[in-house]
Amino acid sequence: MEKTWRWFGPNDKITLDMLRQIGVEGIVTALHHIPNDQVWSYEEVMKMKNYIEAHGLRWSVVESLPVCESIKYGGPDRDELIEKYKESLANLGRAGVHTICYNFMPVLDWARTTLDHPNDNGTTCLYFDRAEFAYFDIHILKREGADADYDEDVLARMENLKQSMTAEGEQRLIENIIVKTQGFVNGNITEDDKNPVEKFNDLLALYKGIDAEQLRENMRYFLEAIMPVCDEWSMNMCVHPDDPPLQILGLPRIVTCDADIEWLLNAVPNPHNGLTFCAGSLSAGAHNDVPALARKYAEHTWFVHLRSTNVLPGGNFIEASHLGGRANIIELVRIFEKVNPSLPMRVDHAPLMLGDEKMGYNAGYSFHGRMLALGQVEGIMATVNREIEENKI
Questions:
Q1: Which residues are catalytic?
Q2: Please, where are the H alpha helices in the chain?
Q3: pTM for the complete prediction?
Q4: Are strands 124-128 and 114-118 parallel, antiparallel or unpaired?
Q5: What is the mean pLDDT of the chain?
Q6: How far from chain centre, in Å, is Cα 346?
Q7: What's the pLDDT at 186?
Q8: Does the pLDDT at position 193 exceed 80?
Q9: What's the pLDDT score for residue 194?
């Protein structure tokens, strides 16, 4: 697989020259300076592509060309927004960038409650605590009917948490759940927003009456509309699984499991309609057998995210080492290297270590932690490819 790295543009503290030195081959990035509802012009696309290539790398994957909320919930301007999306796709194809990672998650791109959970070895990592998330949902958002979405154990733990919660603790949850994990990826909330909770509740209200069936139909509508452009320019659309692959905040989630992925591929049966196989997102759901999903969908995968999680009691989960956790990355590499070895792959989230916490990196996207993870995965890939050469697998 091609060793790629998510990079956030020329202002990223991690430079392309640094990435070349650690063995990165391809760059995963986006035109983050362009608002989600605007066209990516051919000139802007080529400016980024030329910048990357001038540093001896290639623009392998767009992550993401965001799908506007109005397309997801079926707003009155969705056709206009889809036309702009198609124009951006054509401009990317014309420039020779053909793989697009996107998601169809309503409102919240990904969710964690803690960004610096301490590990035994002195590093820190991302963590999701179900009781803390319930507190955010019920007592900060004050979402109507939220109590019904949590079992008695989670509600009991939340009540214990409530006894010690402070204003600073509430602000930490707001920052971690809807600001720091969202703003740097063209999210709906930015660090400049004065009233993020109010804005977030307004976004949730847009999905009132939208259930999973309706969201699926809106996704089908979007994909069917863009497939002619994908056919013309060989654009590979690869949807990212919901992260976490659980129902949250009363929102429909439709890319969480085997049945969801099967529906997606059958709903729009075009080879350009495929999957970003995110092992971390999928492994955060105890219902998912990640290697089994890889075996089933490797031929429909256009992009691979390699990371792993451990699912804990009570609905919690924690980001794990790339050599551990329930994703079984060693087996995943065996599957993808045999079935689809040309795929771009990035190591995704990694721990903060060796001073990463002082560098102001985007949440989950450390330098030293990802560099360690890339070295671990590169070693796995070398071993697996030797096994393949020797006909051992």
A1: 240, 278, 305, 348-349, 365
A2: 16-21, 42-53, 69-73, 78-95, 130-135, 152-164, 167-174, 196-205, 212-233, 258-267, 279-283, 290-297, 329-339, 368-389
A3: 0.96
A4: antiparallel
A5: 95
A6: 11
A7: 67
A8: no
A9: 79
